[in-house]
Amino acid sequence: MLHVAEAARVSVATVSALINGTATVSPELSQRIEQAIRDIGYKRNAIARSLKMGTTRTIGLTVPHITNPFFTDVVSVIQQAFDRAGYAVMLCCTDEDLNTQDDQIRLLLDRMVDGLIVARVGDGAILKGIVDDANVPVVLLDRICEGVDTDTVVLDNQRAVFDAITYLINLGHRRIGYITGTSDISPMHDRMAGYREALHAAGLPIAEELIRFGNFHEIDGYNATMQMLSSHDRPSAIFSANNPMVIGTMKAIRDIGLSCPEDISVACFDDFPWSDVFQPQLTTVAQPVQAIGEQAANLLLDRLAGNRDAPPRKLVLKGRLMIRNSCRPLGAIAQSVSA
Amino acid sequence: MLHVAEAARVSVATVSALINGTATVSPELSQRIEQAIRDIGYKRNAIARSLKMGTTRTIGLTVPHITNPFFTDVVSVIQQAFDRAGYAVMLCCTDEDLNTQDDQIRLLLDRMVDGLIVARVGDGAILKGIVDDANVPVVLLDRICEGVDTDTVVLDNQRAVFDAITYLINLGHRRIGYITGTSDISPMHDRMAGYREALHAAGLPIAEELIRFGNFHEIDGYNATMQMLSSHDRPSAIFSANNPMVIGTMKAIRDIGLSCPEDISVACFDDFPWSDVFQPQLTTVAQPVQAIGEQAANLLLDRLAGNRDAPPRKLVLKGRLMIRNSCRPLGAIAQSVSA
DNA sequence: TGACACGATCGAAACGTTTAGATTAGCGTT
DNA sequence: AACGCTAATCTAAACGTTTCGATCGTGTCA
């Protein structure tokens, strides 16, 4: 900018005024300055600007795994929303690891992001500490966090799983396996509650051996399914609480020589784009990813626009059961259907 | 930092020296300073640091679509690599649009990213201009760019598709439909060349009505497939040059009442995680996403480490044909196989 | 004891902006 | 002709770091 000012024989203040339109500058000077900008190929240094202005027009976004299609979609939506608003997005993947998340958030905060959208991981205590002394707005995504009182957008996980399990029960299933991630994050906790609630509502017993905990990955779903299917009294249906783990479930079913839905019914949380082109077409709980991403972005953009003091807002969205052909009717129901 | 210095009754220079370890500071002062840092909860302002140091330890990454599983995986790998190296990643999606890409890259450059990894879009001329006057290292990913002489990592697309089409030919297919994106980007151009080369090598005619251009999206694959399958002399196999479009192909096959592989064989570019758990299990050309991402990251990290003057490096990786069950043998071959 | 080297610490400039406040010129009023 | 007002422009400080060179004790050696 100094060079531009010199070349145009004006002060840097005038150049700044012209670029930002913060003051009127005469036509002659405007022209001289614009010419100089072109000649020199000047580009404003956003870092210096950020330092002075105290805003970076950049937000931080952390998700556990970008390869999980749910997060892929949400990231995509959020990225687009902030792009439209002229913000850049710094993306971090925490790999479901508490320390990594810690580091990542500090990294983002160091870089003076204007705001943060976090799909948190693990225990909320550390996050609480970070959020409290970061003086930037934070939006929690997908996972609520006890004690952290800030804008949040989540799904009604319990209800969604309740609906899915009830659907299976109505098909005649009585022994329904349930594969979940560690329940230290709210979705897993709430989904499990939905499972228990549905069984309870139908007057069915809860068989603890049919509940398996994994670590969100394909291999965990695989192992859990293998164990369940090897037992003497195997379930007739399996519900997987996330998407990567259901892949493991399908592979286990295949490897053990069974088939879906003939031998075992399968449903899972999170829809994906291929659900209805390949066989079996998985019955899933679809999250409104578009809405989730947009709402999260809107909440943060609203704070960034200056609405700092409004009380924390909690948005709870509804999932949708996508019924396809991976679950088959059992027993009497099956007969009446096929009759 | 000023406050810390005052609280510890030292100069800011000493605080800086301690934090960065750039000079020895006595035990007493160290202790006083550390105490002050804790008391105040001081965090170094990376923006001010960047301004002074001329480096942001942030890189920019642009991809056409993050929801395309190929890019999802590559982004994930790159993100991890830079995370390990202490860099942040700013992610932009260009949506296969030239102007968007233009804006995004300027946005990133404005923010003084230390380097750029670009899976470019459209015509290379504008990109060339941007890259030339950005004085940061740029790595081109997935798509080469005529006239832009910089580090690049791409697939041997022509060879990969040649192998896939040759495989179909060996199965007995003679009329093989080909659905591609616009050929202004190198992968589409090269993959098409592989298609033509394979037919030519087998002495087969090239039927131009079997080559359809789309715009990379599912709907394009759907429309192209519909057109081909409605013709009086429909192909016995279809190859789709990217992943989203093959979904369209599968949907079209379903909607028109045919089935794969019984009525029509399908193969495509880009593998995805579910390929081998659902039916039909798609035969695909798998890109070595891990290697692609790591190599791109390494090329850029090497430049960032100071190796600025080395001549541009071009890495060409090999694809791998993943043969599954979505393509069936035809005619005499089928009979000899079933015999 | 004086000169000197060395280690620890500090002062101040610099990075490239923005902006409050000062200055200047031009012009209409009285 | 002196005055005040407005519009245009400029000067200089500030944002929070890093770092060069200066300063100041302290201990060593001749």
What does the model show?
The structure is a homodimer of 339-residue chains. Chain A has helices at residues 2-8, 12-20, 27-40, 46-53, 69-84, 98-110, 124-133, 157-170, 186-201, 218-230, 243-255, 289-304, 331-338, and strands at 58-63, 88-93, 115-118, 138-141, 151-155, 176-181, 211-214, 237-240, 265-269, 283-286, 314-317, 320-322. In chain A, the strands form two sheets. A six-stranded parallel beta sheet of chain A has the order 2-1-3-4-5-11, sandwiched between helices. A six-stranded mixed beta sheet of chain A has the order 7-6-8-9-10-12, with helices on both faces. Chain A has three domains: 2-44, no CATH class; 56-155 and 289-318, Response regulator (Rossmann fold); 157-287 and 322-338, Rossmann fold (3-Layer(aba) Sandwich), CATH 3.40.50. Chain A is α/β, with parallel strands linked by helices and 339 residues long. The radius of gyration of chain A is 26 Å and the shape is elongated. The structure holds a DNA duplex (30 and 30 nucleotides).
Could you give a short account of the major beta sheet of chain A? 6 strands, parallel
What name goes with the CATH superfamily of the largest domain in chain A? Response regulator
User: Strand order, biggest sheet of chain A?
Assistant: 2-1-3-4-5-11
The third-level CATH topology of the largest domain in chain A is Rossmann fold
Distance between the termini of chain A: 82 Å
**What number of structural domains do the residues of chain A give?**
3
Q: Please, how many helices of chain A?
A: 13
Q: Which structural class matches the secondary elements of chain A?
A: alpha/beta
Strand content of chain A: 15-25%
Largest interface pair: A-B, 48 and 49 residues
What's the average pLDDT of chain A? 92
Oligomer class: homodimer
Given as residue ranges, the uncertain stretches of chain A (5+ residues, pLDDT < 50) are none
Principal-axis shape of chain A equals elongated
